[in-house]
Amino acid sequence: MTRLMSMLLAGGLLVGSALAALPVAAMDAPKAAGTKAQSAKKIQVEAPWVREAPPGARVLGAYMTLVNGSEQADRLLSVSSPLAGEIEIHRMTVKNGMMDMEAIPFLTVPAKGEVKLQPGGNHLMIYGMKRELKEGDRLPLELKFEHAGTLSIDVPVRKVMGKSSH
Amino acid sequence: MTMTTESTASNPRFWRGMAFAVLALALAVAGITVYLKVPKPLADLPMVDHQGKAARLSDYRGKWLVVYFGYTSCPDACPTGLGEIAKALKDMGPDRSVIQPIFVSLDPKNDTPERLSKYLPYFDSAFIGLRTEEPTLGQVAKQFGVTYVTAESPKFGTLIDHSLYAYLVDPNGVLRDSFMTTFPPDFMRKRLTQHGWKGAS
Known about the structure:
The complex is a heterodimer.
Chain A: H1 3-32, E1 43-51, E2 59-68, E3 74-80, E4 86-95, E5 98-103, E6 107-109, E7 114-117, E8 123-127, E9 138-145, E10 149-158
Chain B: H1 5-9, H2 12-33, E1 40-41, E2 47-49, E3 54-55, E4 64-70, H3 77-91, E5 99-105, H4 113-119, E6 128-131, H5 136-144, E7 148-153, E8 157-162, E9 165-169, E10 174-180, H6 187-194
Parallel strand pairs in B: 4-5, 5-6
Antiparallel strand pairs in B: 1-10, 2-3, 2-6, 4-9, 7-8, 9-10
């Protein structure tokens, strides 16, 4: 084997292993965040988190990215948790510095697209908690979709100041 | 939409309705396009702090005030905004000693001094909570240019749509500036400096 060939082979192996590692890493990320029982074609829940409630607060906000891998638009119809009384899907927009927040009956996730639930925007409002959640706790959520069915996720509670921890 | 033009146009109730709709729209547009004229001296209105003591903005003269209007049952906007203010204060180190963060409750019915005194230190121990009933609350909010709409939901209780600004008041009680609470790091310090704030020195 010439030196050139062995270099090419080594390079090929490196690229190959990097490529092989990529999908694993991509699948590990949502799994680490507590997602399970999903097929790649349907809805993926990425980076879900619940904001730790300040003492005395009656409500919690939950955030995540819903990724739709299918060719068909889907709709998040409802969310529930054995630890919460009620969960509403809230649309929040900001117009001239004034918030406009309302409960919406469903949230559309476009085909081959995604919807972000994030601080200062759309979010899940969780009300009537049966116990106080602190950072490190996990909140089980059931997300019911029109086509993808019901996804069960386990959402970490995080103490985050402001929009993000940075 | 189907409409029999003749019968609608000749109906005086239709035109009265139209007049109201036009007026409402004009007011709504005026309401959202009114912007804050600064510098603006603030009237000194009576409120109560999170310890239940009588308080006025003039009690904090000599310090710069960072004021936020919200309510403790707010699911998203207030924890986000208060968190950003708290982070900005923390980043200022010793310079923050000449800044007083203030939270004015838009929900005096539910935000008792007890609730405010539990809620606010979570963000920053320096926060002072102020509450007052209507119509004084409306007067306080108006002079800052704060708008808020309160709705009662049978399931969730009080929900309030409100302005998402932080307000800077100088040590003489003059409103100097306002900015969205989704500001980037170091933004608050820059704005304070623009208005002549010199830190703790």
